[in-house]
Amino acid sequence: MNRPPIPLLYEDNHLLVVEKPVNIPTQKDRSGDPDLLSLLKEDLKVRYGKPGRVYLGLVHRLDRPVGGVMVFAKTS
């Protein structure tokens, strides 16, 4: 299934801010559909060549049918 691009609005060493497309869950749910948190972790892993797991903290959530600005923490 083709996913819409996830626009990157801001990124530094501590934060990642993106525009969440509509109809994508913010985090894993029972549907098993790709979720924003997992997609962004994979993107960071590929872009920065990181081996193993990538930390990305969920600062807040938006419901699946809602699109809007999402903030993620890159550091704990």
Keywords:
single chain, 76 residues, alpha+beta, Alpha-Beta Plaits, 4-stranded antiparallel sheet, 17% helix
How many beta-strand runs?
4
Class derived from helix and strand content: alpha+beta
Can you give the mean pLDDT? 94
Largest sheet, in brief, is:
4 strands, antiparallel
Low-confidence spans: pLDDT under 50, at least 5 residues?
A: none
Strand share of the residues?
Answer: 15-25%
- Please report the number of helical segments: 1
The CA-CA distance between the termini, in Å, is 32 Å
User: Widest sheet: strand order?
Assistant: 1-2-4-3
Q: Percent range for helical residues?
A: 10-25%
Assembly form of the protein: single chain
CATH class: Alpha Beta
Q: Give the total of domains.
A: 1
What is the fold named in CATH at topology level? Alpha-Beta Plaits
The assigned CATH architecture is: 2-Layer Sandwich
